[in-house]
Amino acid sequence: MSVWELLIKNEVVDRIDLKTSEYDEAHTYFRLRKNLSNKSFNEIFKVRKYVELKRPLGEVKWWKDESTKLDEF
Q: Could you point out which of 28, 38, 49, 64 has its C-alpha 20 to 30 Å from the C-alpha of 1?
């Protein structure tokens, strides 16, 4: 199983979990959903595999650098 994204101009417009890890199958799924020919679909959309960015918990502590004095604004 893989999560696939449909993009227009590098903006994600759809994301779905499919039972395939093959690009061609994901591309065909989105193309048939949009009911477009291969050429028309490729002119408008891109398909890519979704990669979740994982950060270790506790690594980002933005509140440590933020001022607690409201008068500074």
A: 38
Strands 11-18 and 46-49, by their bridges, are unpaired
pTM of the model: 0.69
Q: Are 15 and 3 in contact (CB under 8 A)?
A: yes
Cβ(4)–Cβ(26) below 8 Å: yes
Yes or no: say if 24 and 31 are a contact pair by the CB < 8 Å rule.
no
| Number of neighbouring beta carbons within 10 Å of residue 34 | 14
Residue 13 tokens read as: 């417009």
Please give the Cα distance from 73 to 70 (Å, whole number). Answer: 6
Q: Rounded distance, CA 54 to CA 2, Å?
A: 16
The pLDDT tens digits of the residues spanning 2-26 come to: 999 999 999 999 999 999 999 999 9
Q: What is the pLDDT of residue 1?
A: 81
